[in-house]
Amino acid sequence: MTGLVALTGATGFIGRHLLADLTARGYRVRVLLRRPVEVPPGAASAVVGDLTRPINMAAALADVDAVVHSAGLAHAMSGAPEDDYRTLNTQATARLAQAAERAGVRRFVFLSSIRAQTGATAAGPVTEADPPLPTDPYGRSKREAELALAETGLDWAALRPVLVYGPGAKGNLEALLHLARSPYPLPLGGLRGRRSLISLESLSAAVDTLLRAPGPLRASFIAADPDPLTLPEMIAALREGLGRRPGLLPVPEGLVGLACRLTGRGELFERVAVGLVARADGLTRLGWQPAMPTRDGLARLARG
């Protein structure tokens, strides 16, 4: 399928890359914008509207073959009330899906999150066969949006990406890059928790896989590159991209965790250093392949 795709969130970290990648793959992309700003380069057209107060939905979805919905309130917006997550991530998704169903859209691809499936850490590999157990307002809002999609007659697919890295990454990935660029040895060599990541390129390939897959799908899919890394391996890859040695000291994990919490970096420690391995079994069965090994992707990110 290389028809007309309506894309939300086209000015965000993931959406900007999706717009460029889908256009390069031959799709015509209509961006759905909240404000009448300049149309992003690569968009075939644009429609202005607000998903929380749906207007212009008929115009936005006219002749659209598929919707890729990447807009929403990000997990990085820590401290946001749970009602905000529900309004922007659950209710807005449900309204857009209902409008898409009325417009006869063939497929609806929703950018959910691994947090709809699990908490910040997991004892063993996470798969789509595991029951979803979100642990925070963000994860619950994404899971509730998936359930709202299941109540429609649409052929839908929800992508649950793990931590996404690429140019322009904010939050924990930005903090990790800052650590790698520091001129000092880092006391992180003793950390052994493995973490799944996914590159923007691999995530875009996953969206393309879902757009082209024979239907019906009507399911959620974990999106994760197949080679989870420890935090020391991530730092080593980033510093390799910077042309530097790893510079890692083997300090015990308990001491590192305590120091991170005392210096306000407890969330970074939990999100990157503690284990969360996820398997993209469903996407792999559909023929998806990651764009590059995670080590190579992190080194390239640092060089950029």
Description:
- The protein has 304 residues and is an alpha/beta fold.
- It has a domain at 4-165 and 197-224: Rossmann fold.
- Helix content is 40%, strand content 15%.
- The protein has helices spanning 13-24, 57-61, 82-103, 137-150, 171-181, 200-212, 231-241, 253-262, 266-273, 281-285, 294-303; strands at 4-8, 28-33, 45-48, 66-69, 107-111, 156-161, 163-165, 194-195, 197-199, 219-223, 229-230.
- The strands form 3 sheets. A 7-stranded parallel β-sheet has the order 3-2-1-4-5-6-10, sandwiched between helices. Strands 7-9 form a two-stranded parallel sheet.
- The longest helix has 22 residues, at 82-103.
- The two termini are 32 Å apart.
Brief rundown of the structure:
The chain is an alpha/beta fold. Helix content is 40%, strand content 15%.
Key structural traits:
11 helices, alpha/beta, 304 residues, single chain, 40% helix, Rossmann fold
| CATH-defined topology of the domain at 4-165 and 197-224 | Rossmann fold
Fraction of helical residues: 25-40%
User: Can you name the CATH architecture of the domain at 4-165 and 197-224?
Assistant: 3-Layer(aba) Sandwich
Rg of Cα set = 19 Å
Task: Kindly report the average pLDDT value.
Answer: 90
Strand content: 5-15%
Output the CATH class name of the domain at 4-165 and 197-224: Alpha Beta
Task: Enumerate the spans where pLDDT stays under 50 for 5 or more consecutive residues.
Answer: none
Number of strands: 11
CATH superfamily of the domain at 4-165 and 197-224: NAD(P)-binding Rossmann-like Domain
Which assembly state applies to the chains in this document? single chain
* Strand order in the largest sheet: 3-2-1-4-5-6-10
H/E element sequence = EHEEHEHEHEEHEEHEEHHHHH
InterPro entries: Epimerase_deHydtase (IPR001509), NAD(P)-bd_dom_sf (IPR036291), NAD(P)-dependent_oxidoreduct (IPR051783)
Keywords: Isomerase
Domain NAD-dependent epimerase/dehydratase: 6-213
Protein name: UDP-glucose 4-epimerase
